[in-house]
Design goal:
Blueprint: H1 2-17, E1 20-25, E2 30-35, E3 40-46, E4 53-57, E5 62-67, E6 72-77, E7 82-88, E8 93-98, E9 104-109, E10 114-119, E11 125-130, E12 135-140, E13 146-151, E14 156-161, E15 166-172, E16 177-182, E17 188-193, E18 198-203, E19 208-214, E20 219-224, E21 230-235, E22 240-245, E23 250-256, E24 261-267, E25 272-277, E26 282-287, E27 292-298, E28 306-307
Length: about 300
């Protein structure tokens, strides 16, 4: 009987750690943990420093939360839902992401115009890369070759070579790009341009501009479905999502969500979207097939969840 206990515990921990959404609540210094399948909050974790950005290390089963007021990021162990470490970065960390092998953490510093690279095992800084003004959203290519960074105040996207840790290309997009996203195969890059109320579509390999799609007021962040057919964009001032058809680069639907929607993330396993609503302090659960809100989940004050925040 004792031989069965450890495997059973390990299986239980794995199930509990899957499809959890980590929602940064900036105004009450906490992270709400949502069980996506059950659509409820299962835990609330105190995280000081006005938490904003979120990244999930699926390999090492950690959640990283940027803390702009403390100039760093917090580490949450996903199986235990415990905050384990806080790491100093610099001026005001915001955007955060992880490579697909789970080996490196990338943190954008809004004030210092840099991206810091950390070893995910030792949490030691490996490199610091100078980018454009006010770096925010970031995403890593599926092959871990490129890191893309939105430079908000420069109206541009930088493409960083992750072998050389140097900028390969910088391309102008719309006005004040913030959130960015890649499709599943990494061939297309999408940017939410806050001040021009549009989305830039780029060929990701060389950052060639392909199209511009008008959306709602003050688009903030994006998510792409696993099949690459639809792009969902949060519109802060419209309290909506714009749905873009990727084949035609045309908006095809609008979904009403909470007040001031910001972060958005997609669960491929459950085929659901989650949207963090800043003013409502809620999260909307969205059906990406029928383009409708299924439920609304109460979280903490000022839910932001900027980044990819769902574990699998």
């Amino acid at each position: 009987m004792r031989k069965l206990i450890l495997p059973l515990l390990m299986f239980t921990q794995t199930v509990l750690a899957e499809n959890l959404a980590f929602i940064s609540n900036q105004l009450d210094n906490s992270v709400s943990v949502i069980d996506v399948a059950k659509s409820n909050v299962t835990a609330t974790i105190a995280v000081a420093g006005k938490p904003a950005g979120v990244a999930i290390n699926h390999v090492k089963r950690k959640a990283y939360i940027s803390t702009p007021e403390q100039g760093g990021f917090a580490v949450i162990d996903i199986p235990t839902l415990k905050l384990t470490q806080q790491v100093k970065v610099g001026g005001a960390s915001l955007g955060i992401c992880v490579d697909h092998q789970g080996q490196r953490i990338f943190v954008a510093d809004w004030y210092e115009n840099t991206v810091a690279v950390f070893d995910s095992t030792t949490l030691e800084r490996l490199h610091t890369i100078t980018v454009g003004k006010s770096p925010s959203g970031m995403v890593v290519s599926p092959d871990d070759q490129w890191l893309y960074v939105a430079n908000r105040m420069d109206d541009s996207i930088s493409q960083i070579d992750l072998h050389k840790y140097s900028i390969r290309n910088t391309t102008k997009v719309g006005k004040h790009p913030f959130g960015i996203a890649l499709n599943t195969d990494g061939s297309k890059l999408y940017t939410a341009n806050v001040e021009s109320d549009d989305v830039s579509v780029l060929e990701a390999g060389h950052l060639k501009r392909l199209n511009t799609v008008k959306v709602g007021a003050r688009p903030y962040a994006l998510a792409v479905t696993a099949d690459g057919k639809h792009i969902f964009v949060t519109n802060q001032d419209d309290s909506t999502l714009s749905v873009i058809d990727a084949a035609s680069n045309q908006p095809i639907a609008t979904v009403a969500v909470g007040d001031k929607p910001e972060g958005i993330s997609y669960s491929a396993a459950l085929h659901r979207l989650l949207v963090a609503n800043w003013m409502d302090s809620t999260v909307s659960l969205i059906d990406p097939v029928n383009f409708e809100t299924l439920s609304t989940i109460k979280t903490g004050e000022g839910s932001r969840a900027f980044g990819e925040f769902i574990s699998h």
